[in-house]
Amino acid sequence: MPKVSIGDAEIYYEERGQGPALMLVPGLSGVGSFWTRQVPDFSRDFRVITHDHRGTGQSTHSRIKYSVEQMADDALRLMDKLGVASAHFVGHSTGGAIGQIIAQDHPGRLQSLVLSATWAGRDPYFRRLFQSRREILTALGVEAYLRASVLMLAPPWWVRANDALLALQHPRAATDAAPLEVMTSRIDAIVAFDRRSRLAQIRTPTLVVVAADDMVTPRFYSEELAERISGAKLVVLEGGGHFVPQIVPEPYNAAVGGFLRAQRG
């Protein structure tokens, strides 16, 4: 299983395909396997790199104070270790926050940017949502947190159709979860994130994509990003909830893949 040391942590990563480097960076769950339904498509034209964030999956579960800036630095250090000077970048949710930081602070490292179901900075809705999720996690435990979270992450029709699958997945995921202090610190990190005032600095070609029924990062967050980033294109998919890349991959891959291939030059 490929891991690479970035100094104070080991990062689990996978890569597939050849061509320009493409970083697919997941959200708060942090595991690169989130992109299972994108990798086969995108790897036909790109060297696709996925990784588990520090604090998640098979990467080091460091007991540190997490921040989105730290997550962005980890991603850059991973790119350095893999010999990637610059890459196309698709960031979903927390991954999109990471992408904003890299585009603002290290623009030369990105060839294009996809901001997938993400946000520019905290507001009352975001704060209340993640305070509630954090309270469930600390009061009731990881499995209860996962059971509650899926009601926000996936559309009702998908939850109804996948009840048996979820009943199997949640106990397994709870067993493999990071320590509670790591999970809560990562939630605190995304609640603290706010790069709204610097959006106009982003000059990387940017696609903003969201599902119309996303309850975690609602459509108005993506509209704000598209309005404030010069030249950004906004795509609103009909449905799929916050986990739209997994739930309706065909329209998602068509929109994101079309944009990425157009940026290859």
Provide the residue-averaged pLDDT.
Answer: 97
* Order of strands in the sheet with most strands: 1-2-4-3-5-6-7-8
Number of helical regions: 11
Cα-based radius of gyration, to the nearest Å: 17 Å
Low-confidence stretches: none
Structural class: alpha/beta
Name the beta content range: 15-25%
Number of strands: 8
**Spatial gap, N to C terminus:** 33 Å
Largest sheet: 8 strands, mixed
What is the helix fraction of residues, given as a range? 40-55%
Order of helices and strands: EEEHEHEHEHHHHHEHEHH
Shape: globular
Describe, in short, the structure shown.
The chain is an alpha/beta fold and 265 residues long. It contains eleven helices and eight strands. It is 45% helix and 17% strand.
Overview of the structural elements:
45% of the residues lie in helices and 17% in strands. The protein is an alpha/beta fold and 265 residues long. An eight-stranded mixed β-sheet has the order 1-2-4-3-5-6-7-8, with helices on both faces. β5, α3 (94-105) and β6 (110-116) form a beta-alpha-beta unit. The longest helix has 17 residues, at 124-140. The mean pLDDT is 97.
Give a quick set of tags describing it:
8 strands, single chain, 265 residues, alpha/beta, eight-stranded mixed sheet, globular
Q: How do the strands and helices of this protein lay out in sequence?
A:
Layout: E1 3-5, E2 10-16, E3 21-25, H1 39-42, E4 47-51, H2 68-81, E5 87-92, H3 94-105, E6 110-116, H4 124-140, H5 142-153, H6 156-161, H7 163-176, H8 180-192, E7 206-211, H9 219-228, E8 233-237, H10 244-247, H11 249-262
Parallel strand pairs: 3-4, 3-5, 5-6, 6-7, 7-8
Antiparallel strand pairs: 1-2, 2-4
